[in-house]
Amino acid sequence: MGFNDIFNTDFLNQFPTQTLSQILITMGLAFILGISIAVIYKRTHTGVLYSADFGITLIAMCLITAMLIMCVVSNIVLSLGMVGALSIVRFRTAIKEPMDIVFLFWSLAGGIILAAGGYILAFVGSLLISLVLLCLRDRTYVHTPYLLILKVQDSQSAADLSKQIKDKTKKSRLKSRTAHKNEIELIYEVRIAPEEDLNIVSDLEKSDGIKEASLISYNGEFLG
User: Which residues cross the membrane (predicted)?
Assistant: First the structure.
């Protein structure tokens, strides 16, 4: 078969179209897989605010990708046109969390594999990915990262609190020290167990020279 035969009508008609039952099965499985990915995302999310819209985006992306790939594999003309159309599309939405990229790619890959007929691969692979993410999440965040914000009266109080923080936390690091006329503001990056987050604030508030103590969940880079 020569190059010119590619554009022959008989050649183009060789590509079968999807039946209604195949479309319903593929889209249904894509919906189930998308929901599973969204659930794992919610379970492993470690940011300050969980976005329900992002979970819906994962489901929709899996469905849209499956629909798109079914169209591509059914007709070579549409596949060539789709490549050209997608090559000019630019998405400029900033991804703040690195793990969000993993879930986006997972949803995209799941839709592609399902549309290609790899039902077992899509679900078995997704099951293994889910187990890995859940295991890594539970292992990594045994001691949760926090920002501890303190306002103290003077330098002596700041030095005393620094010793207490080292004793009460798994790890700690002074990130910022701001001196005002009547107080000093300290920001520590600390690692503590989740069940101890209230105890450390209560203990520090009882110390002499402290005016205010705040503990904020921290989802950025933290102590390794």
Answer: 20-41, 53-83, 103-136
pLDDT in tens, 161-195: 888 877 777 778 888 888 877 888 888 888 876 66
∠ CA 8-12-17, nearest 5°, is 165
Q: What percent of the chain has pLDDT over 90?
A: 23
Task: Look at the block and give the residue holding tokens 């549309």.
Answer: 115
The pTM of the full predicted model, rounded to 2 decimals, is 0.62
Q: Write the single-letter amino acid at 216.
A: I
> Of 112, 140, 168, at which residue does a domain stop?
140
Place of tokens 């079968």: 16
For residue 18, the 8-state DSSP code is P
Q: Rounded distance, CA 87 to CA 89, Å?
A: 6
CA distance 171 to 187: 14
Asked if residues 107 and 36 have their Cβ atoms less than 8 Å apart, the reply is: no
Q: Are residues 160 and 86 in the same domain?
A: no
Outline where the chain has alpha helix (H): 9-12, 20-44, 52-74, 76-86, 98-115, 119-140, 155-168, 197-205
Chain Cα centroid distance, residue 129: 13
Using CB atoms within 10 Å of the CB of residue 113, give its burial: 0 to 12 exposed, 13 to 18 middle, 19+ buried: buried
**Structure token digits, residue 96:** 């703040």
Q: What is the DSSP letter of 166?
A: H
Domain that includes residue 212, residue range: 144-217
Indicate the Cα dihedral angle 110, 83, 74, 109, nearest 10°. Answer: -10
